[in-house]
Amino acid sequence: MMMNKQKFIDKFMAAFVLLAMFKVIGIAAELFHESFWSVIGNLIIFLIVAFIILMVITALKDKEQKVQNSKRGAPGGGSFYLENSLFDRIRSKYEDLAQKYIEEKDYKKAAKVYMNLLQDYYRGAKTLEEGGFYNEAAAVYLKKLKSKSDAAHCYEKAKQYKKAIDLYKEMEQKEKVGDLYKQMNDLKNAHIYYQMVADDYTTNNQMVKASLVYRKKMEKPEEGQKVLLKGWEEDKDAFNCLNNYFANIFDVKKLESEIQTMYEKTPAYKKMTYLEAMKYEFKKDVKLQPVTRKIAYEIIAEKVENRSEIINELKHFNPGDDVILKDISRFKTARNKMFRN
Fold first, then answer.
1. Which of 191, 213, 228, 327 has the fewest CB atoms within 10 Å, i.e. the most exposed one?
2. Rounded to 5 degrees, what angle do the CA atoms 115, 116, 119 make?
3. How far is CA 100 from CA 36, 104, 128, in A?
């Protein structure tokens, strides 16, 4: 048993040294496009690492011998310990080497350690990205990690907008495509994609979001108002559409007129929703209080017979008025007595 393990260790050491030599040659080939002294520097570093590995193997062989001498009756455990301890130490040395490069701001070499020696492409890509090598990072994200999103983000950072746009199109991120076309001052294509986004929102009854695309992205506030009006009229998130429609009218006189006009067209079943919107408009400007209070009173008077609790809404249109609060209390008391009788 001892001879078999010894042979295993010797074969493992020889194979690992050979593998390390090939790795060094491979890294030299990758770095060949760099300067001669840069290649020599990298070779020296990896030869040092290889030497450290040999030292670790030798030390572990000695330790393995001691373990075997003390545990003659425990078969199999020593070689498992050797393999795990060996790879942990090697990995730790590579981790230290990568960290050293990062501290020296040599992000490309750190990334090569992560990718070539540790086979950790994600950290390699992140290191390149951290160092500002966005195109190189994008290539790793795309080819090794198959992450179009991360690659597109890196191309965007590198101002490689066309490459980023192609990836965002594949991912069907239309608004992002529009944003990048806008960044390139290609408003024609930007608006084509923004229109697609607005249409998608409208189809899904997300009228407020569609209106924001028109207002914020396409700079077409009138189109945004039309979408909100459509949402209010067709009961597609009616309250939020009405609330946002009023919020986008900044001229107080025009807003006052619009509040009255829209109320006159409001069907009975939507008047409670309109009343809720009036609470917000009442607080917005003192000049709007007469028209919003008048509309609120009309709706309350119309609904109070079937919905007595609506009388409580009067307090929202008469803040700080103790008299109205007493009137509400008297009304509720009289109403309760009537029902008891």
1. 327
2. 55
3. 22, 6, 15
Buried b vs exposed e over 254-284: b needs ≥16 C-beta within 10 Å?
A: ebbeebeebbeebeeebbebbbebbebbbee
Burial of 128 from C-beta contacts in 10 A (0-12 / 13-18 / 19+): buried
pLDDT confidence of residue 258: 97
Of residues 131, 62, 119, 127, the one with CA closest to residue 90: 119
**What's the gap between Cα 205 and its chain centre?**
24
pLDDT, tens only, 137-194:
999 999 999 999 999 999 999 999 999 999 999 999 999 999 999 999 999 999 999 9
Place of tokens 């607080």: 283
Angle in degrees, 0-180, between the axes of helices 238-247 and 252-264, rounded to the nearest 10: 150
Q: Which of 23, 27, 51, 55 is nearest to 41 (CA)?
A: 27
Q: And the tokens for 216?
A: 């914020």
Tokens linked to 251: 């001229």
The first and second tokens of residue 20, run together, are 């390390």
As a 3-state breakdown, the chain gives helix, strand, coil percent values, each rounded to 5, of 85, 0, 15
CA distance 45 to 57: 19
Q: Closest Cα partner for 144 from 111, 170, 169?
A: 111
Helical segments of 104-160, H only: 107-112, 121-130, 134-143, 148-157
Whole-prediction pTM:
0.72
- The 10 Å CB-count burial string (b at 16+, else e) for 69-107 is eeeeeeeeebbeebeeebeebbeebbbebbeebbeeeeb
